[in-house]
Amino acid sequence: MGMSRDDALALVSLIAESENLPLPRFRLSPRQGHARNTSISVPRWAFAKHEAFAMYYVCHEMAHLVERKNGISSFHHGDHFKSTEQRICLKFGVTIKGYKNNGPYPRVDQVAY
């Protein structure tokens, strides 16, 4: 089913370490996710979905921090951002099936772990 907060914190820590990022603060938000300079937020509803989708969402928000660390504005979900997101997802075993950049997020059924 979903992913636990502790598992999400562990994934955030692993991504931060692998990408040479300071460990960001992590919180669950009521409606939508975001990445700030020192924190990420993932919506609670994403955690109620399949575990792979919650993992994807954590990877997605962490990709924003990686882009910022590299001096790239990541407010848009363009090709460069998507390649960073895909690299991080694959590194942690999250695959996105048949996803084209038709929006910021894939459908739940397109994400697997």
Average of pLDDT: 85
Strand order of the largest sheet: 1-3-2
CATH topology type? Zincin-like
For the largest beta-sheet, the strand count, sense and barrel status come to:
3 strands, mixed
Give the CATH H-level superfamily.
Answer: Metalloproteases ("zincins"), catalytic domain
Strand content bin: 5-15%
* Count of discrete alpha- or pi-helical segments spanning 4 or more residues: 4
- The helix/strand class is alpha+beta
Low-confidence stretches: none
Q: Any guess at the CATH architecture?
A: 2-Layer Sandwich
The global form is globular
Could you explain how this protein is built, in words?
The chain has a 3-stranded mixed sheet with strand order 1-3-2. A two-stranded antiparallel sheet has the order 4-5. The protein is built from 4 helices and 5 strands; from the N terminus they run αβββαααββ. With 113 residues, it is of the alpha+beta class. The mean pLDDT is 85. It is globular. The chain has one domain (5-112): Zincin-like. A hairpin with a 3-residue loop joins strand 2 (34-35) and strand 3. It has helices at residues 5-18, 44-48, 51-69, 79-91, and strands spanning 25-29, 34-35, 39-43, 95-96, 111-112. Helix 1 runs parallel beside helix 3 (51-69).
